[in-house]
């Protein structure tokens, strides 16, 4: 077990299986020292635990937990191409999308779920730049979607 996966276990989490693509793309691709993930939905065992707009059908607190799940799914996607999460030198960028009710403006707080998970699991390597974007709708009516870019250390 990698040190990163041991840290996940310490937090009571396990790395899930990679979420299969919903269309014509790969969950993650490597280019040089970087891994780019596709947008990761908060899928658990192949299903969305909740759907709808944040600030309407989904509370900001629920959405923050869903963003954590998205980040966990993104780490699984990174591992699928990097082979070992201990190779992550740093998370460079996180981009999060929040399906928002028209008057909802708390996207940054929702995306803290993903950012905080990455920090808890990776420590200083998890500190990153980030964008939090409100959108009208996401695939499958998901409340949140997260993608990450990581730099790998040499093998």
From TrEMBL:
It holds the Pfam family YjgF_endoribonc. It comes from the Bacteria. InterPro entries: Endoribo_LPSP/chorism_mut-like, RutC-like_sf. Residues 5-148 form the Endoribonuclease L-PSP/chorismate mutase-like domain. PANTHER family: ENDORIBONUCLEASE L-PSP_CHORISMATE MUTASE-LIKE DOMAIN-CONTAINING PROTEIN, ENDORIBONUCLEASE-RELATED. This is RidA family protein. It comes from Streptomyces phyllanthi.
